[in-house]
Amino acid sequence: MRKLKGIRLAHEKRTAEQAFVTLPPPQKVCIPMSMHMGAPCEPVVKLQQQVSVGECIGTSDAFFSADIHASISGKVTAITDFRMANGNYCKAVEITSDGLMTPYEGLAPVSCETAEEFFAAIRKSGAVGLGGAGFPTHVKLNPTHKIDYLIVNAAECEPYITSDDRTMQEKQEEIIASIRRVMQFLHIPECYIGVENNKPQAIKILRECAEQDDSITIVSLPPIYPQGAEKVMIYNITGRIVQEGQLPSEQGVIVINVSTMAFLEEYFRTGMPLVSRSLTIDGDAVNKPCNVTVSVGTSMREVLTYAECRFDDVRRLIGGGPMMGGGLPSFDMPITKTNNAILAFTSDKPVTTTACIRCGRCANVCPLNLMPTAMEQAYRKRDKAGLQALHMGLCMLCGCCSYVCPANRPLVESHRLAKDFLRQK
Predict the structure, then answer these.
(1) Closest CA relative to residue 254, chosen from 236, 234, 273
(2) What does the alpha-carbon distance between residue 236 and residue 223 come to, in Å, rounded to a whole number?
(3) Checking CA distances to 99, which of 52, 124, 383, 416 falls within 20 to 30 Å?
C-alpha cells in the first residue's frame, strides 16, 4: 500500500461502543448564517415569524454557499450579529420553541430523474461536509472534470472522535445506498471507502453491506495521522497526487465524508434538510463520554450538561479534534453543521518555546514533505515569494510538525497566519 508520512497518536476512542442518543429538542436555538465554507447566508425570515422544522431561514445567491434551515418549530425571537469562534461576525437567527417540532409543510421524499435535478436537490438540502470543513456538498458533486473514483472518507483519524465510526455501524445501509446514487448520477465507475483499521466492526459491517457490489471497495488503512486528510487519502488509495492549487476533481477524484453520505440518503428518503448534527462529547472533564444527535443551534452547554461535564474544571474547550479542532470561547456557543465533536479538558498548561535546534523532526513527519521551520521563518519576514516557493499553499495545518517539535515552536499557528497573509496580499 502507498503511504505518506505522519505520526502515531493515542487514539482515545472511549466512545466507540456508545450508540447515538437523540437529545430532546431545546427550548431555544441560535442558528448562525455561516456554517459552511463560502459566502454566508442572509436571513429570509422576520421577527415573530412562525417557522417549522426544515423551513429555509437563510440563503444566498452565491454558488459557493449552502441553505440553512430551522431545526425546531417556533417563533423567530431575534436576528442578531453573531461572533463566531474564529472572531468573524455573521447574522444569526434565534428561534424559541413552541414544543411541537412541526415539520415544514410539503417536505416529502425527493426523486430525481436527471443530474441537474440531483444537484438542485442537494443544494436545497443544505448539505455540507460533516467531517468539519463544511465544503458545500452540491459544489463538490458538480465537478467540471471526468471523475474516475469516489472516495468516502471514513478514516476519522483524530483522537477521541467516534461519530463517523458510529454512523458506519448504525447507518451502513444509508451509506451504501447514497454511494450508489452518487455514482449513478455522476457516472463514477468505482468507489473506495477508506477506514482506519482500528475500526474493525465498521469495516466488517460495511463489507457485508456492500459484498454484492463489485464497484464498492472498503479499504483498511493504517491508523497513522493524518490519514483522513483529503490529499493523503487520495494518494494512499489511488496513488494520484493533488497538486498545489488543484481540486481533487482535477485529478479525477471526489472525496466525501461518510456522515455526509449517510445524511444525503436520509434526505432523499424523507425530504428533511440538514437540521441536526451527530457528534462526540469527550475529554477528561466529561464524566459521561457519549455520542449524541442534537438540533443545530443547540447550546453546547446543554449538550455538555447531558454528558455530565464538570464545568468548573474545564480549562480548554475544543470544537473538533485536539489536532485540527479550534478553541471555543464559551460553553454557550451553538452546535453547527460542522461540529463533529466537543472536547472538554481540565488542563491547558502553558509551554515554554525555545529556539529551533534544527533537528529536522518536523520535516520528517510532514505528510506533504514541506519544510515547516523554513515556512515559519519566511512568514516572520513577511516574505511572500519565499512562502510561495516553499509551497505554503499545500500545508493542511494538520499539526504534525508542532506535535513532534522538541522546542515547542508554534509552527501550525504560524502557518495558519501565513495562509491568511498570502490571501490578504
Answers:
(1) 234
(2) 12
(3) 124
